[in-house]
């Protein structure tokens, strides 16, 4: 497939330093992939939530120095954006292609189409097996990809994942959002709905407590990204995710280890607990983050660090020693419980972990 796909790549240093953006033609339309790091390293594929891209969904995690050193030291990062969710139309302008709303003549892809599209992206770059990191809707797409292409996924790191078909209430809520987006675009109402989807009420601002810098930044980014991006593209992705099917049976067939993060204030908290209960406990772990919404990668990225370190050590991966002095992230043999280094579960015994990070300590 890689040979039949087309790609145009440009440096997008005006958007993100050091990355290269590829627009890849697949059987299901074009898709944007931002690549960071050494192509010779193992691949980490990311997929964001609805109406987000890698800059608005993963920059908190990758701007965290310890996490960035862990991930960039071990992986080449391939950030896949849902169709039409590129960082901005700036990419299109630089390529002199103009704005890129997806034509109404192009069928809305199913979730299976989007999972197969991920496979075509891997084929284009010549990637065989990859690590995956997804958030909510993106976590669903990567889980479906892992169930359809089991030999191509080494491990899953899922943030506030979905695995069931939408409940009636979620389906109706998403349907209302779809209708509003279709007729009115990304208006103030939709932005508020999305902020509630992404963040806990603590950072959104409650009674005499101002909203956090994270939410203010997201609002300013939304004014640039969501207003510039064609709203019909967001509408299409919402439709795709609202038509998802139950993956419970597929979860039993996964042969990779899985690490799940979820904020205890996430609207999808119960979905994450359900998914965890259906996975093989020998090869999976759940991390609940206190006072946090769905997008843990942005709201509490430090809470992800130590669990990810333990998880990746099972693959023989580690963080560079020059930054291991952080008290939040002691990655050295003397700091790791011996039972975590047992040979069980391919070298790493993952135990359920519940973080207890107060708002005060998370700002330290």
From TrEMBL:
Q: What is the lineage of its organism?
A: Eukaryota, Viridiplantae, Streptophyta, Embryophyta, Tracheophyta
- What family name appears in the similarity comment? Belongs to the NDRG family.
Q: Which controlled-vocabulary keywords does the entry list? A: Membrane, Transmembrane, Transmembrane helix
Transmembrane parts of this sequence: 124-146
Pfam families per UniProt: Ndr
Question: What PANTHER family does its record include?
Answer: N-MYC DOWNSTREAM REGULATED (PTHR11034)
Q: What is this protein called?
A: Pollen-specific protein SF21
